[in-house]
Amino acid sequence: MSISLSAITKSFGKNSVLKEISLDIADGEFLTLLGPSGCGKSTLLRILAGLELQSSGTVSIGGRTVDGVRPKRRDVAMVFQSYALYPHMTVAENMALPLRMRGLNAWQRLPLVGRLLPGTRIAKRQIEEEVRRTADALSIGPLLDRKPGQLSGGQRQRVALGRAMVRQPTVFLMDEPLSNLDAKLRVQMRAEIKELHSRLGVTFVYVTHDQSEAMTLSNRVAVMLDGELLQVAPPHEIYADPDDRRVAEFIGSPKINMLAGTVRERGRIDAAGTTLSAVLDMPVGTLVAVGIRPEAFHLTHHAGAGSFAGTVRLVEHMGSDLFVHLDVRGQGEPLIARLLAERAPHVTIGQTLHLAADLDRVLLFDEAGRRIRTTREGRGASVARLREMA
Amino acid sequence: MMAGILSVPDHLRRRRATSTRPPDATVEHAVRGHRHADIATAWSLAGPALILLMALFFLPVLTVFVIALTDWQFGASSLSFVGLANFREVFADQGFHASFLNTILYVLIVVPGTILLGLGIALLIESGKSCRAFYRALHFLPFMATLTAMAIAWEALLHPTIGLVNQTLAGFGLPTANWLRDEHTVLPVLAVIGIWQNLGYAMVLFLAGLKAIPQDLYDAADVDGADAWLDRLRTVTLPILGPVTMFVSIVVALKAFETFDTVQVLTQGGPEHASEMLLYTLYRESFQYLRTGYGSAVAVVFLAIVVALTLVQARLMDRKVHYQ
């Protein structure tokens, strides 16, 4: 089912949590809402599920407007961060509940009377089969008689997935489903969720604050900050071609280097003690932010225009890569460069180093944090091109 | 007591001294010294509580057990052992039977009544948004009040001619009763007072329990389709309140078993022993008729019943409410 959110706002009292969010999610897409805690991503998901009512705007699922429609009638399933398993029920009962609530009427659900009513037995057997089939698919078949309290975190996670899957919803909503797991299990479950998505082929909306989850799982990532939707794009584009300074800073580890720059005549930019040239159509004296990802740096031997000179403050060996922290004069925070270990084997603390940036990968932002795309570019080649001042 | 506590730092200092000694032939000696010192610390820490517990709890209980085997009368200078004669008398006594059955009936009314009403009120308060603190305080007041004084207020309300209850009933043309003097109504009326008194306590515990239910579970129930009031109650609220309910039922049952003040103030066990309950029987035998030996036997039986019931209740419910 496709999902369409248009101009969703939400405020609690005077506190505005969501500001005019519009978003279209295609049928079968895996979309991740990514943002730091408190950015409103969970609230947006809860509005989508019907657990929370938006202050204004409309939600439609599969072309049907669902504002005011109860969660159970939206045909969505949700996996919660805490798993929200019913502690008094066995795994089988937990997974059967959504089916029982749909397949049996109130009388049939009664403990003793229900059994006597016509159709109950057949319906119950179907539910049992369905639960077993789903449990086997998630390899939790042997756990069906246990209670959640007797399960490990990963097993509970599977049960929560199972409870969501068992009624074959057309939309899966997941609210930070992996954040209660340890690192190893998280990577494993991440792969399983991805596989689940390709197997089921239904729409997934996944909320997380973990960019590696967002980048590995999604077809598209929606980056949210302070109740605003900053950018919706495929993972590689979010990383390489961010629309907004905040997106660039939020995505990527170590963080992107942001240098304060000033536009000089003929499109040159002064930043961190060096001069870069861009094809910029901006008045002289405009302040810009120059964003350079750590891996966009490379070592260079000639000092001078276009290269950043500084002393090495810290070297972190990561195996194939080195993270070099470089103190540059006039720059508050050190620049962080990610260099291939084999190309920079002898970097030591205190050493003076010259770094040049890969010009295709330098990102420029205006004072409001919006991306400055240079005028000559076509739509596809959207990186700001800079030329070294030779 | 003080000496025991003060000796601890001394000991710790000594212990540090021994542990820094180099490992040689004296090690074994030092280790043994350690162990002795640890034991001494343990006793000196547990000692005060142990002495108090012995003096205030175990010894009196033991004394009651011993007195139950004698024909001692309160204040008498001599006594003789009569073996189990007191217990035989207790079990053969019609008065005790009546008192026992009354107590059971009373508990069977008070416990479910308190739990249902307490839970109901807690759910109502929790579902509303305004005046929560006010309603909470209002319902908790009876539990705080002195029951003896409250019993007198109830007596006035239940007075056969000028009492508000009968006047109201008569006003609506309904039949009235002499509530506290009629053997059919007296026990239920006492039970109602018992419920009224314990309600607030149960409510406060249920409120705390309701607050502790994770919102996620209700959300999950909503998504799963259990979003009607009764379904939510059955799927989430009641099961999660299980441990609280167990605690409330045990505590209220114990309180109901020990009911004494309302009986003493309002009915003195009458009419025709219709409102006589175990604790009142115990009191009357021991301190009014001064048959302390017999009274002690009743006390022992009472203790046995209460302990047994509590254990059974805890064991049975524990298995059902702690979801492991």
Automatic annotation (TrEMBL), chain A:
It is a peripheral membrane protein. InterPro entries: AAA+_ATPase, ABC_transporter-like_ATP-bd, ABC_transporter-like_CS, ABC_transpr_MalK-like, ABC_transpr_MalK/UgpC-like, Mo/tungstate-bd_C_term_dom, NA-bd_OB-fold, P-loop_NTPase. SUPFAM superfamilies: MOP-like (SSF50331), P-loop containing nucleoside triphosphate hydrolases (SSF52540). This is Glycerol-3-phosphate ABC transporter ATP-binding protein. CDD domains: ABC_MalK_N. Gene3D superfamilies: 2.40.50.100, Nucleic acid-binding proteins, P-loop containing nucleotide triphosphate hydrolases. GO terms for biological process: carbohydrate transport. Pfam families: ABC_tran, TOBE_2. The lineage of its organism: Bacteria, Pseudomonadati, Pseudomonadota, Alphaproteobacteria, Hyphomicrobiales. The keyword Cell inner membrane applies. Keywords: ATP-binding, Cell inner membrane, Cell membrane, Membrane, Nucleotide-binding, Transport. The keyword Iron-sulfur does not apply. It is found in: Cell inner membrane. Belongs to the ABC transporter superfamily. Residues 3-251 form the ABC transporter domain. GO terms for cellular component: ATP-binding cassette (ABC) transporter complex, substrate-binding subunit-containing. GO terms for molecular function: ABC-type transporter activity; ATP binding; ATP hydrolysis activity.
